[in-house]
Design brief:
436 residues; Rossmann fold; 8-stranded mixed beta sheet; 18 helices
């Protein structure tokens, strides 16, 4: 089977690479000629463990190609995935400009039956709009419009995207006719063979599943952060609370980790979008709206926590920050808590220096004039406090004796609860965690 994936960003590139790993002939298309040229040379524009190897292997085998030619790629494919970006608008809605442009372009290159699949995260009702625009593009080009539309939302965690695609918890396929269903089931047959649950449903339901999943996970994060804040008032331990409730199988322990709040390309955008389109349908997603509010307040609270640890004064202090990406194993800083927290520290008069294992270049682009250091110890050298912002593994086993000697004041504010409070305090640190 020949397929085309339009969009060589995070979702599109991972989707194209992993389908080619299944033995499918894949062409990944993007209008950014410099990005495509780099990919043809084996240069991956994002940091994702394992992706570079899969791309190189399948390019060498001739199963994966990259192109800027949408027309030829669509014409030579049976299934066309739309994997372009859907950024947030200022009003909380979703910018569907790229999806709509691609849909119309697909229609203008129809040369036989195609299944047009929306892979990007889009509000409910978008696939119906895609259908209209494919039809419109075909009519304007004088083409016979023979096609189906479908929804196949992605559930890829940054830093674990390859395993999430190759061994997913489930695959969601929204279709409106038997022909599209049969073709997509055949395309995903390798996952049937490892007994992956396949959720077959109609298109609006498939679109909503993606939003409901991300909104629920974001809500769990906001919930445990509120519990953590309460624990600090009553001398409780949020980790024990999380374990106590997480052992209940109806709740589960995942995403019950307190910290500075969620970030990244999905949760902030998708929660805002879900709340927005619910209002468009005359409903209120009150739980999601509350999760959004809690997440925003949590970042402000973290600035206050750091200030309090420094005796209530930020002016003139040197603060070292370990970790900048919104989570480990990625260089993505979209809506990363570090951005707002560092801004808040600077507004209070602090000087901030930082280190991240992979997000240094990204940080330099999104946080102006940030002092970037070569490693964790350079960050600590002469600092008044050390803040653990992102829970990279290499921050879990720091040489604490060395850190103690390097710091001007032995203050550690651990926003990810990487360390246990009592051992840290016994080593002489003024240690502050979240909810414990």
């Amino acid at each position: 089977m020949n397929i085309c994936v339009i969009g060589a960003g995070y979702v599109g590139l991972v989707t194209a690479a992993c389908f080619s790993e299944f033995g499918v002939q894949v062409v990944c298309v993007d209008k950014d000629a410099s990005k495509i040229d780099a990919l043809k040379k084996g240069k991956i524009p994002i940091y994702e463990p394992g992706l570079e190897d899969i791309v190189a292997r399948n390019m060498k085998a001739g199963r994966l190609k990259f192109s800027t030619e949408t027309g030829a790629s669509v014409e030579n494919s049976l299934v066309v995935f739309i994997g372009v970006q859907t950024p947030p608008r200022e009003d909380g809605g979703t910018d569907l400009g790229a999806v709509e442009a691609v849909a119309k372009e697909i229609g203008s290159h129809l040369n036989g039956y195609k299944v047009v699949v929306t892979k990007s995260t889009v509000p409910v009702g978008t696939s119906e709009r895609v259908k209209e625009l494919v039809q419109q593009g075909a009519e304007e080009a004088g083409k016979e419009a023979t096609f189906s539309v479908a929804s196949n939302p992605e559930f890829l965690r940054e830093g674990a995207a390859i395993s999430d695609f190759m061994r997913p918890d489930r695959v969601v396929i929204g279709v409106e006719d038997d022909q599209a269903e049969a073709i997509l089931k055949d395309l995903f047959r390798p996952l049937y063979l490892i007994e992956t649950p396949i959720v077959l449903t109609n298109i609006p339901t498939a679109e909503l599943i993606k939003y409901a999943a991300n909104a629920f996970l974001a809500t769990k994060i906001s919930f445990i952060n509120e519990v953590a804040n309460l624990c600090e008032k009553v001398n409780g331990d949020v980790h024990a609370v999380a374990r106590g409730i997480g052992l209940d199988k109806r709740i589960g322990g995942k995403f019950l980790h307190p910290g500075p709040g969620y970030g990244g390309s999905c949760f902030p955008k998708d929660t805002l979008s879900a709340a927005y389109f619910a209002r468009e349908y005359g409903e209120r997603f009150r739980v999601i709206e509350a999760a959004i509010e809690v997440n925003a307040l949590q970042r402000i609270r973290m600035v206050g926590k750091i200030k309090e640890a420094l005796g209530g004064e930020l002016q003139g202090k040197i603060i070292g920050v370990l970790g900048l990406s919104f989570k480990p194993e990625t260089d993505d800083m979209r809506d990363a808590p570090a951005i707002e927290i560092i801004a808040g520290l600077r507004e209070g008069g602090a000087q901030v220096r930082a280190f991240d294992p992979v997000a240094m270049d990204t940080a330099a682009a999104v946080i102006p004039n940030l002092e970037l250091c070569k490693d964790s110890y350079a960050v600590a050298d002469g600092a008044d406090a050390l803040v653990i912002m992102t829970e990279w593994n290499q921050f879990r086993m720091l040489d604490l004796e060395r850190v103690y000697k390097l710091l001007r004041q032995p203050i550690i504010i651990d926003l990810r609860n990487v360390y246990d409070p009592e051992p840290m305090r016994k080593q002489g640190f003024s240690y502050v965690g979240v909810g414990r």
